[in-house]
Write a structure and sequence with these properties.
Length: 378
């Protein structure tokens, strides 16, 4: 692979993320002119620069160098053990769905990936918590981030979000590549509150991609709740990030203080209302209590598993329901531009004829494009 070919790969990856040479130079700590020379093939890229470029651009160093993956190597790098056949099949289907989504983005003229991975290793729980607070403020998610997170990730950052029936062992997966952008897969079998937590959990992996072993390139994750099992280190960090993002410490404590009884205790049944307020699962609230050391992990587990509380959760319901909308919006935009048929649109968006007609009417129907016919009187 020549310097010119490597430089062209770097330039292409940078252009896909809509980064300027100056922005890349600032992240690498080198002059803008050095980036220009690298991309034009007039300067070698050092090993450290290549490593930092791979993190910044969301592609592997091997890809930038044009080195093919070893035969038989998995494209999904699992963070929690080996993939079973049904799990691998689900992730392969997710990859194909992302390719379809990217085509629709191109047809609609809205290819966007605004994720900016962190350029430092996230290796401690304190760093994960700090990153969550930084992202909550940067994205202006407010006091109840769980209620705004999906729309912000989809429409502001361009993240592809798919809800799909998956094996029970899989909570979610995430990927980020220069070719397809950023995407998150969520198990639609799980409760609505757990889906929100998975979305935040996988957002951490998109941000931290490349900053620790096992988080580069394509990633599949099997996320076990801290109340149920002890996950791998990177998964624990993702859980810490998600918990702090969805339950901001100050706002969480404020809600708890409002529920305190005269003896200082809080009814576990009142925590169902706290979960609804923040748009998360009741389980996430108990995890938050344990993380703040307001209760022990053992007490949190036993209280959450109490049959009476579980009956109350089922009776009250009212959890926030995730409804990804961007793909439908872009699909209809591409359809109105004449880039696909109605039947193809219904197939890609997994809509029945009735659903498609109803959604089309809600958007005002297909706009007719004019065309010229010669020889008609003015």
């Amino acid at each position: 692979m020549t310097r010119k070919e490597i430089g062209e790969r770097i330039r292409t990856a940078r252009a896909r993320l809509k980064l300027t040479q100056a922005e890349v130079a600032a992240r690498l700590g080198i002059p803008r002119s050095a980036v220009s020379l690298i991309e034009s093939g007039k300067r070698d890229v050092t090993a450290l620069e290549l490593y930092r470029l791979s993190k910044l651009l969301g592609v592997s160093m091997e890809s930038l160098l044009g080195v093919e993956a070893r035969e038989g190597e998995e494209r999904f790098m699992l963070r929690a053990g080996e993939l079973r056949a049904e799990e691998a099949a689900a992730l392969r289907e997710f990859e194909e769905w992302c390719r379809m989504y990217r085509r629709i983005e191109e047809w609609a003229g809205e290819v966007r990936d605004e994720i900016r991975p962190v350029d430092y290793p996230v290796t401690t729980q304190a760093q994960a918590a700090a990153l969550a607070e930084e992202e909550r403020k940067r994205l202006e998610l407010g006091a109840t981030p769980g209620r705004a997170l999906l729309e912000v990730l989809e429409e502001r950052l361009g993240v592809k979000v798919r809800l799909k029936v998956l094996p029970d062992s899989v909570s979610g997966a995430s990927l980020r590549s220069a070719e397809l952008g950023s995407a998150v897969l969520i198990n639609s079998r799980h409760s609505a509150g757990r889906q929100v937590f998975t979305l935040a959990h996988e957002y951490f992996h998109l941000l931290a991609q490349g900053s620790m072993p096992g988080s580069e390139g394509w990633s599949g994750s099997i996320c076990a709740s801290p109340l149920v099992a002890r996950p791998m280190r990177v998964e624990r960090l993702a859980d810490v990030f998600a918990g702090n993002l969805l339950l901001p410490k100050e706002q969480f404590i404020e809600q708890l203080q409002r529920l305190r009884r005269s003896d200082g205790s809080i009814s576990k049944f009142d925590l169902v209302g706290v979960a609804r307020h923040f748009g998360v699962s009741v389980q996430a609230v108990f995890v938050g209590l344990a993380r703040l050391r307001l209760v022990s992990w053992d007490l949190a587990r036993r209280a959450y598993e109490d049959p009476e509380l579980q009956d109350e959760i089922l009776k009250v319901g009212g959890e926030l329901v995730l409804q990804p909308r961007r793909l439908r919006r872009l699909g209809f935009k591409a359809y109105q531009a004449g880039r696909m048929t109605k039947a193809r649109l219904a197939e890609l968006l997994e809509l029945g004829p009735g659903e498609l007609e109803e959604y089309s009417r809600a958007l005002g129907g297909r706009k007719s494009r004019g065309f010229k016919i010669g020889g008609l009187p003015g």
